[in-house]
Structures are given as structure tokens and as C-alpha cells.
Structure prediction request, 104 residues.
Amino acid sequence: MRLCPGPAPAGVDDDAIELAQIYVEPEWIGRSVGSALLEEALRWAAGRGHRRCWLRVWTGNTGGIAFYSRRGFEQVVQETLEVGASRPTVLVMRKELAPPPPAS
Ligand SMILES: CC(C)(COP(=O)(O)OP(=O)(O)OC[C@H]1O[C@@H](n2cnc3c(N)ncnc32)[C@H](O)[C@@H]1OP(=O)(O)O)[C@@H](O)C(=O)NCCC(=O)NCCS
Prediction:
């Protein structure tokens, strides 16, 4: 899993943080590892002042899109990327992050 600050696509604020990669080893898929990783990543980002998280997911990855949608990510826009000779279409998704509780 990888979180990246930096420029965001249209429809996403530049102060949002990108969830650039999340991959679970095949034998662990569907066993809650991805949910735990995502939850921890979003908690970490919110704790550092980020109010939004965004990501790109391949439009053919219906399982991934469903995973993110059920965890509060909304669809923003579709983009066509240039990756060598291929032109994959990806979906940009975004989620508002809850601010962390005040320190006691
Ligand atoms: C998407 C991914 C990170 C989710 O991690 P995970 O550990 O499998 O997820 P969890 O066990 O916490 O949750 C399972 C959820 O993922 C969905 N899912 C997505 N792909 C799945 C698959 N191949 N097998 C089982 N469940 C899958 C399930 O429908 C389930 O949804 P729900 O809980 O909302 O009903 C993981 O499936 C993965 O690494 N996939 C391949 C890489 C990928 O697509 N990464 C995202 C690219 S941006």
C-alpha cells in the first residue's frame, strides 16, 4: 500500500492525498486484509491533516470499484491514461476524511 501527496486530477483538491496502490496477496484476498489496510491508511492521512483521499482504479476492476464504493469513495471522473502503447481508462474516486478526535 502507498499513499502519495502531490497534484490531483480535475475535481479533486490538491491538498487531498492519493491512495496510489493497495494490493493484497492473492491467497489473502477476501479475508479483510484490504479493509484493515485501507482503514489504517485513511486514519493515518486524517491524523496528518488531510481532509480528502483520492485514487485511480481501472474501469475494468469491478471488484476494486465495489470495494472502494462500499467504503465511502465516490466516483469523480473517468480519465484515459498513456501507459506506453496502451491507453487504459481509469476512474478517479474520492472520499471525505473525518477529522481525528481532539487530543485529550
Ligand atoms: C481490492 C483489494 C485490495 C481488497 O482487499 P481484500 O483484503 O480482498 O478486501 P477485504 O477482504 O477487506 O474485503 C473484501 C471486499 O473486496 C471485494 N473484492 C474485490 N475483489 C475481490 C476478490 N477478487 N475476491 C474477493 N473479494 C473481492 C469483495 O466484494 C468484498 O467487498 P465487501 O466487503 O464490500 O462486500 C484486494 O482484493 C486486491 O488486492 N485486489 C487486487 C488488486 C486491486 O485490485 N487493487 C486495487 C487497485 S486500485
